[in-house]
């Protein structure tokens, strides 16, 4: 997929109220889950113990941490949008985040992004992006929410 190129507020404005794009699928592996558990000190067995998860877990396998699925957003977002002419970007906030479905190990996920609103705040562009992390072959998404980015263009 070719990312949308954004160089200014006006470029963002073209997508206001519209879908910006969809990333490629990304596979969540047990190695990634274990590394995330190490980084966050969250070693709950449903994430890190495949044998126990198969026997005792509700999903038949280990699942990714919800925050792990959220943490791959920057990687997937860069597949959708390439922002150029940029001095600085700030992750400003997340609204209405809902984890709707567990992501089992070896599932593939992709990000779908719609520009809910864009505003020019005295030279700073505030972009509110509705996101949905879809799970391949699943009806319900892993999560939905609104990400808020501040872009400072040159």
TrEMBL record:
Signal peptide feature range: none
Species of the source: Algoriphagus ornithinivorans
Domain MaoC-like: 13-132
Protein name per the record: Acyl dehydratase
Superkingdom assignment: Bacteria
